[in-house]
Amino acid sequence: AQKITQTQPGMFVQEKEAVTLDCTYDTSDPSYGLFWYKQPSSGEMIFLIYQGSYDQQNATEGRYSLNFQKARKSANLVISASQLGDSAMYFCAMRERGGGGNKLTFGTGTQLKVEL
Amino acid sequence: DVKVTQSSRYLVKRTGEKVFLECVQDMDHENMFWYRQDPGLGLRLIYFSYDVKMKEKGDIPEGYSVSREKKERFSLILESASTNQTSMYLCASSPTRDRGNEKLFFGSGTQLSVL
User: Fold this and answer.
1) Contacts A91 to B, Cβ<8 Å
2) Could you tell me which chain A residue has the CA closest to the CA of B55?
3) Cβ distance B42 to A106 under 8 Å?
């Protein structure tokens, strides 16, 4: 079974609109962390936001927020006021405490295109 | 700023060649990782290391080996390159601080083509 599922291979959004990128996860570990990374066409992986399983509030970082619904095992990324520079591939990832060495398991990604 | 440096941005090799992909980090991180990225498959973990001379298999270790002789350097080795190993290879590192929120720092990737 997939540990991280991103069901949207591609998304389009108009500039200045908000967009939600979906991520669901599967784990039996009570302690885990969820990450979102952005990969522009240049190929670099840019860390965006982190949510811990015990965090009481949804994480926010500037225009990025994480809609964390623990019971549904979802960790959707919300980008507000989209900009052309947000066009990129976005990856959701999970770290389980029971796993070794701080490794992250990644989803298959969502390609976001911001249009004028 | 943390820097993770991969020795080559693009590499073209022939089937059967032995290939070395090198990765160096400058932040004294304990953990280092090798992922490969393929369209539609995301990033998949090949090998990782949490200490010098220590290595652990990831999800897709077949056809690969690794070496970590020094803390800052983590090498990925393709003993006999095959065409199905054509891919983008990403190296990453992270500290161990047991808070769980330690992010991975990535290199810029090596696009390997095996002909």
Assistant:
1) 42-43
2) A101
3) yes
* The pLDDT value given to residue B102: 83
Phi and psi at A95, nearest 5°, equal: -115, 130
Burial of B68 (0-12, 13-18, 19+ CB in 10 A): buried
Contacts of A102 in chain B (CB under 8 A): 31, 50, 94, 96, 102, 104
With a cut of 70, list the residues of chain A below it in pLDDT.
1, 98-101
Query: What pairing do the DSSP bridges indicate for beta strands A64-69 and A74-79?
Result: antiparallel
Chain segment B57-113, per-residue pLDDT in tens: 999 999 999 999 999 999 999 999 999 999 999 999 998 866 677 889 999 999 999
**Which chain A residues are Cβ-neighbours of B102 within 8 angstroms?**
102
The span from the CA of B54 to the CA of A8, in Å, is: 37
- How far apart (Å, rounded) are the C-alpha atoms in residues A22 and B69? 40
pLDDT of residue B101: 77
User: Which residues are bridge partners to A65 per DSSP?
Assistant: A60, A78
